[in-house]
Design a protein that fits this description.
Strand content of chain A: 5-15%
Number of helices of chain A: 15
Order of helices and strands of chain A: EHEHHEHEHHEEEEHHHHHHHHEEH
Largest sheet of chain A: 6 strands, parallel
Oligomer: homodimer
Radius of gyration of chain A: 20 Å
Number of domains of chain A: 2
Chain lengths: 391, 391
């Protein structure tokens, strides 16, 4: 295990009806004038926005609002939000929505108190200061409610990039599983895939002797495998929603990723897909991750076999561990199919002729060093090969 | 899953040599005059205390010191610490040691800023205010480095009681697994048992549909089962120490206990043993917990069978689940024996004739309602029966 620091100071409020305490928590964490940031109409139609406003008003907290966050949230709205916050002297950003809304809220919160262009943070500058952000989560997926991360897409060139920093940890997050019950099955499944991907990015490591984090990652994966089919079958299964929602937070606040090298090349490859085809992040990951696993399996067959045996219940073939390893990847594919996720690049709207562009942008887009990943270092050619496995 | 809040704002600094950053973190969290609180001579002899002092001095932080914390820390030293802190205008308490030292430091920190008798907190008053506490952990066991809890023994009557409150969460905790390498095997094993007991107290619940926390608890238990024999065999196994140390924190900061009823009757029964016989807490738990399991097994055979199958690897007997359940308890007993833990009350210095007193004090000592536990509600007679199973 490597040396690490871990700091997750978010106050989590979990359970039924807790969105009605939003005002209480904004007050506790020092907010007096709030930007309510949200996405589309469902937050309005469901009455959630009204309940949140009522809770703020009951606590004498003023607010302005900015809706319209899209999946793969755009820099344009972030600039609007920054301007609005400055004009209205906002001192607290409250995100009501999923990962996209929270990520957009974080970008606004950092931009308001920064003199330069907020995009600097998405080109590698660490986020050290931001307005406090609170969240009311409506989809279990991105884990942004407990993470120090945010991903934004810049319209020019559709560049999708991430930023990170302790100032991006929400001061509070309200997680009411019932709010996720109205999600369509496809979006629910995308969320499930995203959560599992966050776990796999941490699981595949070259760091040795990390039994505790291995075991916790496996525990969260087994939770997803057990609970996801229940919500696909019955969207109103509150208890299964609750298990998924808490697992989604634990999967990405990094309590199970500490002290070990992490990979993250699949996320980078997916970012190119959702930037170019505007597909759902989870759907993109469902296509990328099994292909990445097949391509990298030989690097550490025993780690793949461990996953297959412990998580997917595949019998260990002691004479041919690679058979067990492969069975695990196949079990993952079958699981993704069973919850309605796409299997191929074509289903995402991708085309073979885009692959050279995708591979080049993935390899050189952000950092520009031509490589992705840590478990296996992937060069542009490897990345192209992996994209081809998705056809 | 039940509604819950979860707040674990401790800054964890994990790894080799990190005790040398103590001064940096005291400064970051606002300390300028520190009470260094510690136990016996090993902290002095090993040079740890000198390294900590050097780090404080290098950061221009003044300090006073108070050693002498005993296992099952006493109220007498807490009163001394409070007086010293007031006299010296201390604004930060730094615990260098194990759970006893940290618990004593927490009590001092709360007592300094409280006008009444600090013991009020241990009679049920919630802790809402305290000086900031930092910790440098030297034994993986109590989990006090990440918990909002403290247990103190009052000399008059040897009453051992707990207090709790968010103000008791350390602002930072430094966890260097190498510091635990000098521990005798017996103390290491006591720590392992304590960590496992924290997990069992949460595992045995009547709350339904708690897959995510069930799985995480099981993950941490399997970590202990895998890693503990390594450190018993080779005390210098840094990696195994590291896995145990992080598992010990996760086992008790409550990330795996949220949203579910917890039991805690075994801890209450053990507290009577260590108060009366002054045995190590972990050794007491090694005797209490298997007996408690045998006594309560019939209440939920399938939960015991799940534990036996998933954690201990016992084959599921689908026709006779109680056989699987019992095999799990037997596996736990064998494990405890293998790491050198006692099996009986007699080995702890206990006597059959003390049982009526122990049972009565356990049932009526603190809260006075005559009952212990939530998984199964135990009355005085049940408690006596369980103590008898330990003979």
């Amino acid at each position: 295990m490597k040396n690490f620091t871990f700091f997750s100071p978010t106050y989590f409020v979990f359970g039924k009806d807790e969105e009605n305490s939003a005002g209480k928590y904004v007050k506790r964490f020092g907010g007096s004038k709030v930007l309510i940031h949200y996405g589309g109409g469902s937050v309005v139609r469901s009455g959630l926005l009204d309940r949140v406003k009522a809770s703020l008003t009951a606590n004498d907290i003023a607010f302005v609002e900015l809706g319209g966050v899209l999946p793969n949230p755009r820099s344009g709205l972030v600039y609007q939000g920054i301007e609005l916050c400055r004009k209205e002297n906002v001192d607290f950003v409250l995100a009501v929505g999923g990962g996209s809304t929270i990520d957009s809220a974080k970008a606004i919160a950092a931009g308001v108190v920064y003199e330069g262009d907020f995009w600097d943070f998405y080109m590698g500058k660490p986020v050290t200061k931001a307005l406090p952000v609170g969240t009311i989560l409506t989809i279990a997926a991105a884990g942004s409610e407990g993470s120090p991360d945010s991903v934004i897409t810049k319209e020019e060139g559709m560049l999708k990039r991430g930023a990170s920093g302790e100032a991006y940890r929400p001061v509070f997050s309200i997680l009411n599983p019932a709010l996720t019950q109205t999600l369509p099955a496809y979006q629910t499944a995308c969320g499930v895939t995203d959560i599992m991907a966050h776990l796999f990015e941490r699981y595949f490591t070259n760091t040795q002797d990390v039994e505790v984090t291995d075991r916790v990652i496996e525990a969260l994966l087994m939770t997803m495998i057990n609970e996801a089919p229940k919500v696909i079958e019955n969207p109103d299964d509150y208890q299964a929603r609750a298990n998924i929602m808490w697992a989604g937070m634990l999967a990405h606040n990094n309590c199970c990723g500490v002290g070990r090298e992490q990979d993250w090349s699949s996320h980078d490859m997916e970012h190119e897909l959702s930037a170019l085809y505007d597909c759902a992040h989870g759907a993109g990951l469902a296509v990328v991750f099994p292909a990445w696993m097949e391509y990298t399996m030989q690097h550490d067959v025993m780690r793949f076999a461990q996953l297959a045996n412990r998580v997917w219940g595949c019998a260990m073939d002691f004479q041919h561990p690679e058979r067990t390893a492969k069975a695990g990847i196949q079990a993952f594919r079958s699981f993704l199919k069973s919850i309605g996720m796409p299997q191929t690049l074509t289903e995402l709207g991708g085309k073979e002729e885009d692959i050279p562009y995708l591979a080049h942008t993935a390899a050189y887009g952000n950092e520009g060093n031509g490589c992705l990943g840590r478990f296996v270092e992937l060069k542009e050619e490897d990345i192209a090969n992996i994209y081809r496995l998705m056809l």
